[in-house]
Amino acid sequence: MSDMQQSDQLVIAGKAYRSRLLVGSGKYKDLDETRRATEAAEAEIITVAIRRVNIGQDPNAPNLLDVVPPSKYTILPNTAGCYNASDAIYTLQLARELLNGHKLVKLEVLGDEKTLFPNMPETLKAAEVLVKDGFDVMVYCSDDPIQAKMLEDIGCCAVMPLASLIGSGMGILNPWNLSLIIEQAKVPVLVDAGVGTASDAAIAMELGCDGVLMNTAIAGAKDPVRMARAMKLAIEAGREAFLAGRIPRKFVASPSSPMAGRIA
């Protein structure tokens, strides 16, 4: 890792991370594949659907924390499968108990089962309660700059607008809205949902996103471990390109070699 990469870290709720790739823990064929893909991604934050994945709720079932231990990773419990504020709040309070007072969480309140689009009124309601209860809330939201700002003003530590529908693999459908959110935000902005391949992740980072969270794009690939490595490289390349500053788009050609000082 270069000196620039070491100094250019992602900071969420006061903690610094080297990796800007956050990964999910579902949809793999088994826990060993989960482990291998997570290691290949070199991710440090792993999100866990408390309603779907065992992290100790069932002592008789395989425990995800055996392959992605909290001693090595930051576990990010999420509220996938919740469709109202009350269920989301209860789920994260349960996660806090299971993880010995863990405060960093990912809030998502869904609107319906078909689109999995965020229900923003319920999301705002849950965010306000959770922040007041002492949680550090990273929040899945629509790509609406006004509502993203409302979530930041409530006290969320990161806003996570969708690029496109969860699991769709459609990539970034509205880069302009993402750019507006990034421009105004004083907390990290991470793309959440819709990434399909490495170029989608790179584009998100080139736009200026602070990170990308993904699950299906890796776990649903033909070779999840190889895709995890690809996503790691894409995130790093996109971030480097953003920091380097791309050339402006122009409608005229510009020769690569200077015209002045030609030999002939």
Question: Could you give the topology of this structure?
Answer:
Elements (H helix, E strand, L loop, with lengths): L2 H5 L2 E3 L2 E3 L3 E4 L6 H11 L3 E5 L24 E5 L6 H14 L5 E4 L12 H13 L3 E6 L3 H10 L3 E4 L13 H10 L5 E3 L5 H10 L3 E4 L1 H4 L4 H21 L20
Parallel strand pairs: 3-4, 3-10, 4-5, 6-7, 7-8, 9-10
Antiparallel strand pairs: 1-2
Descriptive report:
The chain is α/β, with parallel strands linked by helices and 264 residues long. Helices cover 37% and strands 16% of the residues. It has 9 helices and 10 strands. Helix 2 (31-41) runs parallel beside helix 9 (224-244), helix 4 (120-132) runs parallel beside helix 5 (145-154) and helix 7 (198-207) packs parallel to helix 9 (224-244). The longest helix is centred in the last third of the chain and has 21 residues, at 224-244. The mean pLDDT is 92.
Summarize the structure.
Helix content is 37%, strand content 16%. It has nine helices and ten strands. The protein has helices spanning 3-7, 31-41, 85-98, 120-132, 145-154, 175-184, 198-207, 216-219, 224-244; strands at residues 10-12, 15-17, 21-24, 45-49, 74-78, 104-107, 136-141, 158-161, 190-192, 211-214.
